């Protein structure tokens, strides 16, 4: 078998940050940033709106630098991580493991959507907005790009478009699903090469991994300052009345995410017989980092390290599951998109039939798979979901105002889902691979 240094073994570059209690620094940054942001908010009357906006731009700078560093190395990190996971597995194990992982991700995504639908239909948060006059509407909802009234007709084209015509175009445009599929194909092809031919490719890929981890360690130094600045900038610009008006909607989303977290813990207990509270305690650092950065891609190295060292997951499992999961396993985002779509329909007074809900479900599954693992990725894709359901997209302007807060929670749930998948699949596939 081709030997490959696992990515989580390269995460020694993060050790100094973890030993320095990064999670505690992040919490301090969150609290101090929130306090400063409230003081800078024009609604308090302490500073003018112009001063508040100017301060927000500078406060946001560390966060922007952090995210640009992460986005800069995100594609090479995903590329090398997936190849690492593939070449470290036997071809037979990869076939059954890859298919079952995909089916598992589909199952958890469907479960998250079901929870989102039930919670939103029971709580009806959009009806309160509708009673106040609803969201702004500039006109009729835009038709689908091909003029069709059903998303079912787009399925064959969507399936064929999964394989990118030009991988470089997918890389340049940040189309992560195309990058993942291209990488999986290349990784499987590498396993068919002779050891002598494959070794130089493996060594080069390993070097790229190390370079990416060094850049990640640099970016992680900015995390406490980035969290402080992002929270201060956020709360300095958002009016308090938005929280009051949309608080019930936010409560519905958070309740759905909480129920999804419980479902993860139940799966961990039923499959692995591990104590769910021990599992939660072990993954608190990647959860907190995900909550702070709202980017599951930024947490990948720390998630791999946690899976390997604290959860006892085989590196062959984590190297494959976490990069793929960060791209296609967006359960928290799927719940958010589905619940928000129904919320928007309620706010506009649009009745959704059972067929509408089924179509929304299929659309959300496809949309969540293609959601970028970056801040705001859920809202970026949500417009297509609303459009397919015939719901005006104007109300998204209001949702964007609070998306950063909801994004923190759903990203933490996304990362929890990836780590849950790691321990579950390690139960079945990790033991043989861990054998020395």
Report on the architecture of this protein.
- It is a single chain.
- The chain has 436 residues and is mostly helical.
- The protein has one domain: Proton glutamate symport protein, CATH 1.10.3860.10.
- It is built from 20 helices and no strands.
- The protein is globular, with a radius of gyration of 22 Å.
Largest beta-sheet details: none
Number of strands: 0
Q: Can you tell me the CATH class?
A: Mainly Alpha
Terminal Cα separation, in Å? 14 Å
| CATH third-level topology | Proton glutamate symport protein
> Any idea what the shape is?
globular
What CATH architecture do you see? Orthogonal Bundle
Structural class: mainly alpha
Gyration radius, rounded? 22 Å
Question: Keywords, please?
Answer:
globular; disordered C terminus; Proton glutamate symport protein; single chain; 20 helices; mainly alpha; 436 residues
Furnish the topology, listing elements before pairings:
Blueprint: H1 15-19, H2 22-40, H3 49-59, H4 61-87, H5 91-123, H6 125-131, H7 155-160, H8 167-173, H9 176-191, H10 195-220, H11 223-237, H12 240-272, H13 276-282, H14 284-293, H15 300-309, H16 315-328, H17 331-347, H18 354-369, H19 377-388, H20 396-434
Compose a concise summary of this entry.
By secondary structure, the chain is mainly alpha-helical. It contains 20 helices and no strands.
